[in-house]
Amino acid sequence: MLGSSQTETIHIVNNEHLPFQFTFDKASWQEGYGQRPILDIYPLSGLIPPDGRKAVEVSFSPEDEKPYNFNLVCDIRKKPLNLNLNIKGEGYAVHSRLEVETDVGGVLELLPKPAVNRVDFGTIYLNESKCKKLTILNKGRFNFDYLFMPNKTNPMLKVSGAPMGSTVRRHEKVQLSFDFRPISEVSLDGTDFNCTIAGKFEYAIKVAGQGVRPALAFSFENYDFGPCFVTPAGGAPVEHLAHLIVNNRDPMANLSLDCTFDKQRAL
Question: Where are its TM segments located (predicted)?
Answer without folding.
Answer: none
